[in-house]
Amino acid sequence: MKNHLTLVDHPLVQHKLTIMRDKDTSTNSFRRLLREISQLLAYEITRELPMTTRQIETPMGPMDAPTIGTKKLALISILRAGNGLLDGVLELIPAARVGFVGLYRDEETLKPVQYYYKVPSELSSRLVIALDPMLATGNSSVAAIDLLKESGAKNIRFMCLLAAPEGVARMKEAHPDVPIVTAAVDEKLNEKGYIVPGLGDAGDRMFGTK
Ligand code: URA
Fold this sequence. Notes:
By secondary structure, the protein is an alpha/beta fold. The chain has helices spanning 11-21, 27-45, 83-92, 139-150, 165-174, 202-207, and strands spanning 5-7, 51-58, 61-68, 73-79, 97-105, 112-118, 127-131, 134-135, 155-159, 162-163, 180-182, 184-185, 188-189, 195-196.
């Protein structure tokens, strides 16, 4: 992808995002909308996948038909909120391998602490799409991408639903080679590292925890 930041301002995405932001939206609706938006973001993040052709026979005759040139794709869910994006994307790209990075945010320091890491083999030859709905301080996203690069990943893209300007700047500084695709860049972070106006805690809202 050419740009470091791609804002998906499609009306369907923006309309669904507004419903998700509303504090009165139920867990059930929040999860369904996140799944739907994840597929629209996936459409955008895969727009420039390398293509090739293969010979097929239509009922009318032979055709050199376009097909995606890379079979090597890895989706990496940054736990736990990344799972809210994972299912929808996996439905669109069912052959993708899947990995998980478990990081929680220390509420005092706002720094990420790793508790789980399991990713597919041969990351160096895969297009890796990291999934995390909220790019807030950027601390956990940067740490997750650090880990993926340590595992050999060279071609990484980052999908999120909402970003704060601070998180985008932090990612650009640490990982300028990792394009970000998001539905919105909000105003700012508050003193607790939450995105404002945002939508609250994405994990709590999608899983109904508090
Ligand atoms: N994580 C969330 O779930 N929400 C925020 O606003 C920031 C980080």
